[in-house]
Specification:
By secondary structure, this protein is an alpha/beta fold. Helices cover 44% and strands 17% of the residues. It is built from 17 helices and 12 strands. The radius of gyration is 22 Å and the shape is globular. It comes from Debaryomyces hansenii (strain ATCC 36239 / CBS 767 / BCRC 21394 / JCM 1990 / NBRC 0083 / IGC 2968) (Yeast). This is DEHA2F05104p. Keywords: Hydrolase, Manganese, Metal-binding. GO terms for molecular function: exopolyphosphatase activity; metal ion binding.
Length: 412
Amino acid sequence: MSVRSYLVTLKKQLETNSIKSPLRFVTGNQSADLDSVISAISFAYFNYKKDESLLIPLINISRTDFKLRRDIVTLLDSYSITEDSLYFIEDFKRITASDVPIELTLVDHCNIQGDVFTDYLSKGKLDIVGIIDHHQDESVFLNANPRIIHSNGSCSALVFNYWYDQFSNKDIFYEKDNEIVPLLLGSLLIDTSNMSQKVEEGDVIAFKEYQNILQKNEILLKGLGNYACQSTDNIEKLLKGYYKQIKVAKKDMKGFKFYDILKKDYKQFKFTSRCNVSTVVGFSSIGKSFYWLLSNYSMQEISETFNEIMKDFNLDLLIMTTSYTRQENDQYTREFSYAFNSSNPRKDILLQLANLANDELKLDSDIYKLENLNSYLADLGKGQTFKIYNQNNTAASRKQIVPVIKDILENN
């Protein structure tokens, strides 16, 4: 059975109200990046292959925001998995409108993310029954089963490894129409930069199995070659081409407003200090330099967008991190920035944020191609504070930055 066939079966069962109680979902995190989406879809798919029970894979964003994930849209579409066969936050609310028990498995995060799930959990309307994640363990939902939380480059690799161990007969992984493996491979390659960065044991184990499966499946290998525009004769070149095609789609921001860029890879958290003061923080990960952003968007649009997103998401603080490779010398670079309204009651702490995070992030003012930064910021709206830094600790992605900011805001 293909992934598409599973989703078609699921849709028919939902339309006829044929799914038995409890309603069971699996969801990735709020960023809804490739790793989260493939982790959720693959978990639901393998679960069905195991015992034919239906699990609804949920993408933790609104349907309208899915178009911003061009890498996911194009990759899924290449296997005839279209948006109308997928499920989003508004679908969760619609499907769970009746008063039935709800079970939720978390992948690519280990604590509830988003107002909808938070509300359902606080009202006792859902139970967290499983977790597979590669972020910092937040020590919640300790009775979840499975509860697999440890460092790894790709969460989807942990999902695959878990399910691979559940089957004594491995034949299901070698079925001709089993396109879940190329999807899992794409997620792994993107999260590890084609197995060159942040590669850990779980990634290596999964990657070995993906290669074994693909090399014994001419149909999947040919499909991979068509997507990658590469011959299947050389597996190394094939995988490199596959990775590059997905990355090109991920980096494609043509036609995006600045607001779209901030929402493309976004997570939100609430941190509460020892004095019971809460700070709502949005984290946007961006695959372009601030030089590119400030060259393509006016400070007026940037300023207006800050106000808009702060209002739309009730934010106290917006943190933006960029990561990219400089074309002229292939130097991998990260930048760290943040914005807040100057009237914020925690202004004193927020102004010190860079200093307080400096030991971990190694920040300085040597920002790529932005020697005259103040001239760019001169048109920033009154009442806003916007800070940009070069981040010398390039190993620290959002996964590492969130705990740093959490510690600062909860302990100061």
